[in-house]
Each structure stands twice: as C-alpha cells, then as structure tokens.
Amino acid sequence: MTSSNTASPLNAIADAALGLDPQTAAQEREPHAAVTTEPADAAGAVEGPTFASLGLSAEIVSALIAAGYKAPTPVQQRAIPAGIAGRDLLVSSPTGSGKTAAFMLPAIERFAQLQRTQVQAPRDARDPARDPRGDRRTRRPQPVARPGLLVLTPTRELAMQVTTAASTYGKHLRRLRTVSILGGVAYGQQLMLLAKNPEILVATPGRLLDHLERGRIDLSELQMLVLDEADRMLDMGFIDDIETIVAATPASRQTMLFSATLDGKIGSLTGRLLKDPERIEIAQRIEQRANIAQTVHYVDDRDHKDRLLDHLLRDSGLDQAIVFTATKSDADQLAGRLADAGFQSAALHGDLPQGARNRTIRALRERRVRVLVATDVAARGIDIPGITHVFNYDLPKFAEDYVHRIGRTGRAGRSGIAVSLVHHAEQGALKRIERFVRAPLPVNVIEGFEPRKAPPAGGRGGFGGGRGRPGGGNGGRRFGGKPAGSGYGGGNGGSGNGGGRGWSGKSSGGGSREGYGASREGYGGSRDSGYGGSRDSYGGSRDGGYGARRGDGPRNPRRGS
Questions:
Q1: Which of 261, 354, 371, 450 makes a 20 to 30 Å CA pair with 197?
Q2: Which one-letter DSSP state was computed for residue 374?
Q3: What is the pTM assigned to this prediction?
C-alpha cells in the first residue's frame, strides 16, 4: 500500500489515530471543507495547547485543520515537542489516546524542517555506483529503498492505518512518500513501491526482514525508528526479527517506542534500543461505558456455550456482531459452524492472506457479513457503526484486551451490548477483568439455558433477560437446530424423546447414529457435516476465509503477520 500527498478519503482512520470521537470529528469537519493555512488558534477558541503551539509547521497544522482537529490529546502534548527536539521516546499510552499522531506528527515535522533548510537533490533509488564509461552492457543494479523513517507495527491493519494517517498529516508537504510493506501482498507489487525510494516506510517485521535479506531495503540512512505496540510484537514472537532489523540501522537514529506496558520484556528491550529516553506514561482511563450493556453468562461446557451463543445471535435487536475467540483455529471452526447454521459469518485472523482479510472487512462494511469471528489482533482498528453486539466466546488473556474488544460496539455514541460466555474455570480471568474496569460485571441467566452449576452470587439482568426458548436444563438451541425438548441433552442424541436436530444432523429422537457423538453426522462427525463444519466451510482455513483464493497466502505465515 502506498500513500501520496493527496487528501485521504479515509478520515475515520485519522480520527481514530488522533483519539477523537468520530461523530464530533464529522461535525467539526464541515466548517473546514476548504484547506486553509490559518494557524490552529484561528480555527476557533481553544483552551490549552494547540498543535501550532507544540511546534508543528503551518503545512501540518493546515492539514489538521482541514480534517477538523483543534486540540492535541495529552500524549500528543508531551510526545510531539520531545519528538521534534530529537529525543528518544518511551511511551505508555492506551488505545484511543491518539498515539499514532503522537509519533507521526513529530516525524513528519522533522521532514518538513529538512525541506525548508536543504535544497535536496532528487533521491535516486538506484545504487550510486555507476560505470563511469557508461557501458551499456553493465547490468543495471536493482532499486534499493533507503527510508528516513521506519515504523514497525504488529499487524497489517495497524500498518495500513498508520500509512493513511501519514498521508493525511503530510498532504501539504512535497516529496513525502509513504509505503507500507505487509505480509500477504505479492513481492512484485512491493518491489515497484520500494523502487520509488519512499521517505516513510511502514512495515510488519517479518516481511520487512525478507526485503532486508534480499537487499531491497537499506536502513543505513535511517533517521527515525518507531516501534508501535511493541508489547504486541513481543507477544507475537517478533523479538528476534526486531533485533535483526535494529542491528541494520545506524546508532545515531532517533527511536520512539510505544507500548501498553513498560515492564517485563519491554523493560529489557528499551535498555538496548533507547538512549536517555523521555518517559511518558498516560494512565489508562477506565470509562464506565454507560452506553454498552455488559453481562456475563456462565456455561458448563462448549456444547452449552454454543447453544447459548446460537440463541443470543438470533436476538431481533442484533444488527452485526463480533465474536472473539482465543485462537485462530477456533475462529475458523466457529465461523464454519455458524455458516452451516445459516448465519452470514466469516473468520478474521492473522493467518489469513491479506486479500482474504480485505475482502472480509469489505463484506462486513457492506453488511454481507453479519457475524465476524475474530482474534484480538486481527480485530484491532475495526470501526463499523453497525456492530451492535460483541461476544467474548473466550475471555481475553489480558484484561486490557477486554476493553479493546467491547469498544468495537457502542461507537460514536450509539448503544451496544457486550456478552461474555464464561466457564467456571475462567473465574480468575473474569476477576482480573473486573479489577481492571473497576466494576463487577452483572451475571445473567436465560430461562432454558441455566448452567448446571449455580453461578457465583451477583447481579442479574441486562441483555437477554427475557424468557429463553423452552429446553429444560440447558438443552436450548444448538447451531441450526430446532428448540429441544425437555431435559438436559434432549435433541442431541440423549435419552429423552425430544430429539430435535443435532449439529447439522437429522432428527434423531434419541438414536445413536445421528445424535451427539455420532460417527457420521452428529457432533464431532468425521465424514459429512459434524462439529467443525465441512472442508470448504465459509470462513474455514482451507480456502482462506471469506471469498479467499487458496493461493493468496504468504509462504511463511508468521513472517507475514
């Protein structure tokens, strides 16, 4: 992906990067439809620091005014002046605080200063060594990109967000080209982008390292290095790649490291990468999110969880939903089972090729997908107003991720619903989340889906409080099934008379051939349509997810990140 200095149509991404409410930003954009060069203070009465007062040039301030922005966020107020001064930065700032602009604005300002003070010769992407005789038989060297700024991100979606933000902020500057190098994109296409010798390079670590090893990128002239969401990159196993990339950069570079936390592995990494950094910590603001109804439903096992999820997804008030799973394989399997049950579902995770991921997001925006099953990293940055519900099929590993997850609903002041399906063994993880958000999450029980083990004492009510479909125990509805008869297990090969349908199986009435655990068509069936869906299920891993082609994927999924 490449961005030029033309106006970006994706203002929403820049809104998120600056930490602004989309509805407010849209209202503020209307009076500034025409680009002006007036200082930020002239855009209206603003209390406190302005972008102009932080040392940003008129061209950059003009771009921000044109996008409708007036006041910097707290992390921007502290990071921008220090970044312009050339200081290394060590920043801990929560998602949504405007950290993308906190590192990109000072970096672009430094490019603007260079343009004002230097008469730059045209940047030649070719090797400077030339045959003085001009021998035409001499083989022309391969183009080599020598960026001045490198931004490393853990995911492709975040890299594209940063690329678009850079285009928005620097659209009035000359000779400022931004290119993103991501896994899942054809090498030939990326070589053409690198041949332009961009000033700014945004990349995921694995694919960048591939190009470094092939000699397509030279970091010996790098002036600034940014590690965005460094803690995520370490969690994803990129530490060795990062060390190799950093070793290819000059020691004189300026380094900015942004992370949700500054302890653990990050602490040891910063000692090796940063020189006397300016340490900036913005406390996580725990919002009560009154517009999002948050509830917990306890489940006995996966079968109970799946039946309850099926029931909740059929709520008439649901427009679109995201279901979060712990693993990529779980996302594939659950999306396939939901599709078999008649839901417009798709999976989204880091192992899908970029083309498949783009098609899935586009289908979600176009409302051709109603239920997105995703992992934490893949769903970051999704901002779609139609998402009314978020379901935690599995609780997140880190409590902060709970806040990120439920933030996918209730966007722009709308109301939203967040439901966590919790096994009793996950009680510790639930308590960590409640401590993090500083509030207990109310427990809800739907008639017909009661857990066999009584939930811990707590509040009831919230989403789903009405009567469930008759099922007895937690018989209920499984994916694609009819309401079960009385008694727990009725309808999935149990001993009762209310057989109903099993997982894509036929009516059993208690028989062993097509019920729960059957070897052919029931839950866990190995041949036709058991638990896990068919080979080519919608969103399954075999065909690369929603509308994917089998040949889309990178050769090394981890490096493709």
A1: 354
A2: E
A3: 0.57
